[in-house]
């Protein structure tokens, strides 16, 4: 079984500042992947970043980076130099490599203010 | 522009109606998915098709009936729905290679309202 918990239903940040979204998870699989998806008002879910659990180095994609703490089962997303277009619902998700399907958290609504 | 197209974008239907949601992917993927997204709840996986065979059905009521005629198209047939079925229905596709996990590509969803 897999669970994902996002404890922040809503967050806001000023344009150009940095914000961190929290995520904790649980899985019984030995190897798994972690994801952050973004859902803007257009409703299309878009992959922001993904992390393979066996890799210790934190993934980075331009202004987006993660802080992966495997022992603590924590996978937070840091957005640097926030832009108005970053306003969206952000979902954390986990998927095991042995057949467990992608499991999503409840999401965090991020608003970037001008 | 999305490689996964869903129609219609919005749908309002009565509880006695029959309607269908359509999904088409242009990415050459071999797996397709239906998800239900309700307010303040995690996305719920409904059905998975791999190589046009249904490989997963997560205890979805029979009033939802999926159909996958080929690897590019996926339908969700709806009949005698309940108001609690009102939600955003998302289609996704991926390329399943048998190793590791594969990124899902989503459509824009169909906002369904059952009156």
What is the averaged pLDDT score of chain B?
90
Number of strands of chain A: 12
> What percent of residues of chain B are in strands?
over 45%
The major beta sheet of chain B can be summarized as: 7 strands, mixed
Report the β-strand fraction of chain A as a percent range. Answer: over 45%
What kind of assembly state do the chains in view correspond to?
heterodimer
User: How far is the N terminus from the C terminus of chain B?
Assistant: 32 Å
What's the shape of chain A? Answer: globular
Helix content of chain B: under 10%
Instruction: Write down the Rg of chain A.
Output: 14 Å
Weakly predicted, low-confidence segments of chain B: none
Query: Percent range for helical residues of chain A?
Result: under 10%
Number of strands of chain B: 11
On the 0-100 scale, what is the average pLDDT of chain A? 94
Q: Tally the helices of chain A: what do you get?
A: 0
Structural notes for this entry:
The complex is a heterodimer of chains A (114) and B (115). Chain A has 114 residues and is mostly beta strands. Chain A is built from no helices and twelve strands. The termini of chain A are far apart. Chain B starts with a strand and ends with a strand. The model of chain B has no long low-confidence stretch (mean pLDDT 90). Chain B has 115 residues and is mostly beta strands. In chain B, strands 2, 4, 5, 6, 9, 10 and 11 form a seven-stranded mixed beta sheet that branches.
